[in-house]
């Protein structure tokens, strides 16, 4: 029997499929934020910056997350196009809104910081994969990293790692070091889940 050698062509998502994915992905990411903020933890990238700023100011994570992403939309428009930016803007807005609502729906008491960090990393990683596969992101440093790699030849991974390094150093100066250590575990889990499950050679575009 002849083997089918035709390449698999990815089918475009319908608006309804995008809508359900955005709800699922953003709910998971907002739940991850709820686990973090309930125990005074942080994470990496733009979300981590927004969480840290919410601890240091009267403004909430939702406000900071929406605001700090605004400058990156310009780079996203230049590099990824308007469709990507619109979808990303929707995803960021949904996470901001849901992270405000979830504490009123779910109360977390007496949860170990290490368990909170683990669960936050797990649900956030899965939420990001859903969002990525529907042509969006949660904005931020990832867009800047890709732009710097394209313009200056600086590896995007190193840019993101450097940002997270500075973020966690600052967090270590203002937060309990035990909580920062637990936060590092959660951030590592996010990156591992995305790295294993969002590979172009195995899953994306097949």
Automatic annotation (TrEMBL):
Record keyword Cell membrane present: yes
Membrane topology: Multi-pass membrane protein
Domain of life: Bacteria
Entry keyword set: Cell membrane, Membrane, Transmembrane, Transmembrane helix
Subcellular location: Cell membrane
Pfam families attached to this UniProt entry: YitT_membrane
Transmembrane segments: 21-37, 49-72, 84-108, 114-132, 177-196
Protein's name according to its UniProt entry: Membrane protein
Species, as recorded: Jannaschia pagri
């Amino acid at each position: 029997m002849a083997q089918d050698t035709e390449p698999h062509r990815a089918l475009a998502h319908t608006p309804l499929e995008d809508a359900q994915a955005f709800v699922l992905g953003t709910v998971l990411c907002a739940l991850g934020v709820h686990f973090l903020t309930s125990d005074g933890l942080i994470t990496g990238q733009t979300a981590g910056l927004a969480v840290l700023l919410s601890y240091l100011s009267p403004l909430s994570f939702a406000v900071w997350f929406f605001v700090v992403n605004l400058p990156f939309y310009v780079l996203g428009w230049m590099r990824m196009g308007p469709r990507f930016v619109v979808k990303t803007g929707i995803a960021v807005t949904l996470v901001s809104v849901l992270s405000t609502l979830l504490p009123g729906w779910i109360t977390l008491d007496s949860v170990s910081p290490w368990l909170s960090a683990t669960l936050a990393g797990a649900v956030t990683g899965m939420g990001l994969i859903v969002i990525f596969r529907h042509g969006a992101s949660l904005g931020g440093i990832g867009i800047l990293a890709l732009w710097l790699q394209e313009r200056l030849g600086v590896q995007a991974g190193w840019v993101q790692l450097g940002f997270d390094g500075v973020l966690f150093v600052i967090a270590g100066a203002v937060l309990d070091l035990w909580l920062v250590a637990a936060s590092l575990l959660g951030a590592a889990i996010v990156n591992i889940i995305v790295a294993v499950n969002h590979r172009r050679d195995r899953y994306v575009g097949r």
